[in-house]
Amino acid sequence: MHIVGLTGGIACGKTTVASTFREEGLAVIDLDAISRQATKTGHWGYRRVVRAFGRGILTTDASGEEAIDRKKLADLVFGNRVLLSKLNHATHLPITVELFRQILCSFLSMRPVVVLDCPLLFEAKLQWLCSTTVCVSCDAEDQVKRQCERDGCDEDHARKRIESQMPLEQKRRLADVVIDSTGTRQECVQRARAVARSYKKKGFLAWAYR
């Protein structure tokens, strides 16, 4: 199995690249989706987070059930390394268990290429799982503009969110492949298709010569 780690800076177009990889037939495991599932009401990961932060982070969802208020929790840990570490400690195990379950399912289904869509790939040191890594990057000013448009925030807030993450230049240096999303969405899709097709060839060859 050829495992590709996909990461990138905030608002750099990683979602577009992941969608293109799916369209090209690659299996994509979404770590953000796993994180949401692992902290859903009733899940054991949910109970770990509530024990760590207390019931003050809960809200009532549309069905009338108690649920974690993700925005409140995100605002709470933003810029606070101690609380962020506390959150990571609470969620690391349930997320990791589900991640390996999905990787195993992909292996048993004989999927030759699996993409780990993980914003914090390098921060979480998950690159050791991967045969290769891809970073989606763009021009710094484009990144700020996209972040403002996506979240409806001002430039100052956007820059603070960007600066709170691992520097994009560092991610580019750590990655084996960089997809530049500067320009139009279609240009980004074309670059992503080329990368996906190269991985499909490698993956199928790996299965053929096992």
TrEMBL record:
PROSITE patterns named among the record's database cross-references: DPCK (PS51219)
Gene Ontology biological process terms in this record: coenzyme A biosynthetic process
Extent of the signal sequence: none
Name assigned to this protein: Dephospho-CoA kinase
CDD domains membership: DPCK
Gene3D superfamilies linked: P-loop containing nucleotide triphosphate hydrolases
A single MF term (Gene Ontology): ATP binding
Pfam families per the UniProt record, alphabetical: CoaE
Lineage: Eukaryota, Viridiplantae, Chlorophyta, Chloropicophyceae, Chloropicales
Organism listed in the record: Chloropicon roscoffensis
Protein keywords: ATP-binding, Kinase, Nucleotide-binding, Transferase
